[in-house]
Amino acid sequence: MLAQIWKDSTLVKLAMLGLLIGLGFIGYGHLSGLPDRAELQIVDGTVTGASKVTKKRRKTGTTSIHYELTVKPQKAGEPELKLTIPEAEITEMSVRSIITRPVHAEFDSEKDVYVLSSGSRELLSYASTLERRKLGLRQYQVDGVAILAASSAVMMIMGGYTAFRIRRRRDPEADAAGA
After folding, report:
1. Which terminus of the chain has a lower count of CB atoms within 10 Å, N or C?
2. Cβ atoms of 80 and 72 closer than 8 Å
3. Where are the domains of the chain?
């Protein structure tokens, strides 16, 4: 009977795909860990430039804005680094205030800054940055649960409806065979 329902209902197949996508979102939210502070790379240097970068994705229509800092390390012979900070985590005025100033930055392997300070002024703290980024991962979990719930409802409703249609098709055949 389940194989027949699977064969006869396209919506059940789509709902199953939705279940898998929902589980993927939940898994991504749970398994995507943010780096421990001990895993972060550290650079002390001078900010030689900063720019505001806006990226618009055509497919989704979403826009992301971040600041890109160019940092020249104090150690001679090291290349300049391009570090990124999401716009939601720092103000433009703070970014402008550190140009040509010495900074201490802690960043991950993708050059995303988690800690930034200039002199005695801390512009980004590890705890606040971690909390903001955890919110983004929690959103994946919430979206995954919503997709999972909607897909489950569609699967149950369409599976029941398809089973009902299959039984109705079989009943006239059984009556004709018995006569």
Report:
1. C
2. yes
3. 37-124
Contact (CB, 8 A) for 102 and 43? no
Those residues whose C-beta lies under 8 Å from the C-beta of residue 55, and which sit 6 or more positions away, are 63, 64, 65
DSSP structure string for 116-174: EEETTEEEE-HHHHHHHHHHHHHHHHHHHHHHHHHHHHHHHHHHHHHHHHHHHHHHHHH
Domain 37-124 has CATH 2.40.50: yes
pLDDT for 20: 93
What's the average model confidence in pLDDT over 23-31? 87
Q: Provide mean pLDDT across the span 65-71.
A: 93
Rounded CA-CA distance 100/122 in Å is 16
**Residue bearing the bigger pLDDT, 143 or 136:** 143
Distance CA 151, CA 24 (A): 13
Any bridge partners for residue 66, and if so which?
Answer: 53, 86
What is the CA angle 65-67-72, rounded to 5?
160
Identify the band that residue 61 occupies on the pLDDT scale cut at 50, 70 and 90: confident
Lookup: tokens for 77? 């012979």
4 HSE (CA, 13 A, CB side): 11
